[in-house]
């Protein structure tokens, strides 16, 4: 039996190898022989291009590729392949201007392909701008995260945060991983705001949806972008996870219909607008993609940075306490109770210190390039050069965010950069890209800021905390940020905070 299995496995393996070899030949023909040449007028093609794969540094050493590309051309703009895709890198103030302002460059097509979600490039529609789908997506998101909607939900958001932090307070003191716990809090807040209460309220369903989302997120592999037709394990898992999520949403929607039950949440709103379950699932996953990673990582990063910076720790806690003092109705009320009862306007207007901390965390944590695609059917002149039709366009955020002439000692976290007397983010046009600029500013900014303010305020109100290493020893060593990375993400090494609950009255 064992032997038979081994022989059978052997045959399978041979077959698999044969298929693999055939695939390799097919890839070669498809990607190399058939890949479109860059037309005359396109920026210079840089030397990092390998046959078939193109500039693989795009995946592993993105920052290095862009530094090198910029240095190889006189205009600063350059061309390379990713698999068989034509990609242009833009640099400099003019390049940035074109990238963020030119209406002929599509946001959704750029991200859909190079961010790895839908690796098969859509057929060029010559639509001059965004697809119907992405217009629909933007419209729904704007409706859901407009001011009155997120503040209607504020008591729920606050009790989510408090409930998740309470076990740590009950333990009195200990060690926690902010990139785990705070990230999960943000997932819950996001699910509540753009998804449905049924998942946000149930810890088991919440874990399950997070796991499914993370499968989908992880499937954005370089293989998927290079070989869009290959059924990679990641692709299969993604499709499976997508189907599971679909069924979970369908179950909730059908139960509501059957029981005639309604809820005051995003799902109900989308159902009432007549969206199908498929549309709803795609919307929720899209909104999680746009919102979860950036917000979760930066909310956690702020606590990490504050733990190593006594000056800004004192400022931030002072801000939380003075906002509470201004709005305290009962002199004996604990700090956390007072925060829970703050008026909307206090959350909107009274946290400028936390806001500067967030701005600085985003500057450092944002990595990689933004994406666009020329889907106009016309060549777009960029000065004397053109962005060919169908080509993808990239701009590396580090060109401004990590530029020592704009932000001296750019690797240091220092919110003082944004004080009026320094105003480093105003030094050149669009020196700060953390919330997007030009034609595609972040649609979730107000919601993200509110989430971060709530998490940070309660965290500071409830705990004293400091950064420690894996042995629990105090440290001031922050995890290194790999500037070659391709998006914000959890640090490679785990980060630990040693915390102690603050005086009973104070929380
Ligand atoms: C700290 C958290 C966040 C950061 C740093 C951030 C950053 C950004 C940036 C830089 C862009 C522009 C990208 C580009 O030009 O290529 C953008 C766009 C966008 N963001 Fe955010 N974002 C955050 C949170 C959110 C949240 C919570 C949501 C929604 C729930 C959201 C939804 C969007 C959408 C829909 C767009 C695309 C806008 C368009 O198509 O024109 N973001 N964001
Ligand atoms: C976009 O592609 C079309 C099709 O070739 C081309 O005519 C047009 O010049 C391109 N736009 C830019 C900006 O290069
Ligand atoms: C990129 O191309 C445009 C058009 O030629 C030009 O305005 C810009 O200066 C170029 N970038 C650099 C760094 O020269
Ligand atoms: C850190 O903690 C470990 C285990 O508690 C201890 O053995 C070690 O001496 C400490 N290291 C430093 C540098 O304090
Ligand atoms: C990018 O990666 C390369 C090779 O791994 C490394 O030499 C380089 O220093 C990295 N660049 C940055 C800016 O981190």
Could you please say which CATH topology applies here?
Cytochrome p450
CATH architecture: Orthogonal Bundle
Fourth-level CATH superfamily:
Cytochrome P450
Cofactors, ions and other ligands in the entry: protoporphyrin IX containing FE, 2-acetamido-2-deoxy-beta-D-glucopyranose
Strand segment count: 10
Total of DSSP H or I helical runs spanning 4+ residues: 21
Principal-axis shape: globular
Main beta sheet strand tally, sense and closure: 5 strands, mixed
The top-level CATH class is: Mainly Alpha
Cα(first) to Cα(last) distance is 66 Å
Please give a handful of descriptors for the protein shown.
507 residues; alpha+beta; Cytochrome p450; five-stranded mixed β-sheet; binds protoporphyrin IX containing FE; binds 2-acetamido-2-deoxy-beta-D-glucopyranose; iron ion binding; Cyt_P450_E_grp-IV; monooxygenase activity; metal-binding; heme
Description:
- With 507 residues, the protein is α+β, with helices and mostly antiparallel strands.
- The chain has helices spanning 2-33, 57-60, 62-71, 92-101, 107-114, 132-144, 147-152, 154-170, 178-194, 197-201, 203-218, 222-226, 233-259, 266-272, 277-306, 310-327, 335-340, 344-349, 352-365, 398-401, 445-462, and strands at residues 78-82, 85-90, 105-106, 173-176, 369-374, 380-382, 385-387, 392-396, 463-468, 496-501.
- It has one domain (57-506): Cytochrome p450 (Orthogonal Bundle).
- The protein is 54% helix and 9% strand.
- The strands form 3 sheets. Strands 1-2-8-5-3 form a 5-stranded mixed sheet. Strands 4-10-9 form a 3-stranded antiparallel sheet.
- A hairpin with a 2-residue loop joins strand 1 and strand 2.
- The radius of gyration is 25 Å and the shape is globular.
- It starts with a helix and ends in a 6-residue tail after the last strand.
- The structure holds protoporphyrin IX containing FE and 2-acetamido-2-deoxy-beta-D-glucopyranose (4 copies).
- One 2-acetamido-2-deoxy-beta-D-glucopyranose binds at residues 61, 63-64, 483-484.
